[in-house]
Amino acid sequence: MTQDTADRARGLVHQTMVFEDGITLDCGVHIRPLRVAYRTYGRLNEERSNAILICHALTGDQYVAETHPLTGKPGWWQLLVGPGRPVDTERFFVVCANVLGGCMGSTGPNTEMTDETGRGLGRPWGIDFPPVTIRDMVRAQLRLIDALGIGRLFSVIGGSMGGMQVLEWASLFPTRVFSAIPIATAAYHSAQNIAFHEIGRQAIHADPNFHGGRYWEHGVVPARGLAVARMTAHITYLSEEALTRKFGRRLRTGPMLTFSNDLFEVESYLQHQGSTFVRRFDANSYLTITRAMDYFDLAAEHGGSLAAAFRNSPVRFCVVSFSSDWLFPTAMSREIVRALNAAAANVSFVEIASDKGHDAFLLDEPDLFRTVSGFLHGAAERWR
């Protein structure tokens, strides 16, 4: 069953742009057609000058500011994006696209495989989907922005992997971006982060239902492996303080540990995270996107110089980090800021005090809201 068929069976209808000429990936493979699934919020003004692109993180998708059609939960950044929010959809036209390699409508492992002419082969790409990069994702987004008739984005905003896309946008297409807000991110994926991703990938590969990545042929999904991958990653999104505050050493069934059926609250929480994730995400997409993050190294794309990635950049930057984020610590944001300063770019930097860990960028953090709102307001005064 292809992605299109599966989505229709679930009642999902994505906004989608299809580019018949396709896209050439950094790995040299040309995929055609290219499908980009997306959502928009607000209205594009007559001057086409109020567009903001939101870039989602690893496990996110295009449903940034509305109830998710699969989970029934609020949009993943509905605290930040919406009417009267810091990214005000009564003022801005907001676009969010499912990344290339994703599993919510854009071309990816569970969309229909095609040959070099674009002819469908009647089965998903699956494990044969070619490797993609963050730069490939951004090039696909540019096709969408062009098709929407937007010459220059007022801002590009994203956290975590979304922040990597923001940096790539500002480096690759600086004349197409007026301002950029990379949040809780880095200019490269660290060895520790790659190691955590590899644990998740190995869990998926070890699942007996993985079947070498061709699980659809057997009518199964590698649910256990994908759930473990999610659980492992989710630990890195939190801080020790956040885990202790939320769960401590509490047991679900009472104060005494019997070593039989008792669960610590934190165990139950992680198991819930894993089981709900399996219902909305594809294992081959997870393998593809984590690899894209691991490959990301913006300095390496520019001869080893991060400053060279932003040389003569006209983009206005606001870099944001969180004090308790150990996945993308503040030191990595400072590296970006130093490179921007070396390139004589216009940059402001904010480290927000928070004990919520990496996930703070998705949570109720008033200082983040004030920072984003204030920066966008100031940028608007200098726009055009």
SSE topology:
Layout (H helix, E strand, L loop, with lengths): L2 H7 L5 E5 L3 E2 L5 E2 L2 E8 L9 E5 L25 E2 L4 E2 L4 E5 L14 E3 L5 E5 L9 H14 L5 E7 L1 H12 L4 E7 L7 H16 L16 H15 L2 H7 L18 H14 L4 H13 L20 E7 L7 H13 L3 E7 L13 H17 L2
Helix pairs in contact: 2-3, 4-5, 4-8, 5-7
Relevant CATH superfamily of the largest domain: Alpha/Beta hydrolase fold, catalytic domain
What is the beta-strand fraction?
15-25%
Report the strand count. 14
Distance between the termini: 48 Å
H/E series:
HEEEEEEEEEEHEHEHHHHHEHEH
- How many domains, in number, for the residues? 2
Ranges where pLDDT stays below 50 over 5 or more residues in a row are 1-5
Multimerization status: single chain
Number of helices: 10
Largest sheet: 8 strands, mixed
Instruction: Give the helix level as a range of percent.
Output: 25-40%
Strand ordering within the main sheet: 1-4-8-5-11-12-13-14
**How confident is the prediction overall: mean pLDDT?**
93
CATH topology title of the largest domain? Rossmann fold
What structural class do you assign from the helix and strand content?
alpha/beta
The CATH architecture designation of the largest domain is 3-Layer(aba) Sandwich
CATH C-level class of the largest domain is Alpha Beta
Q: Give the radius of gyration.
A: 21 Å
Taken from the alpha-carbon principal axes, the silhouette is globular
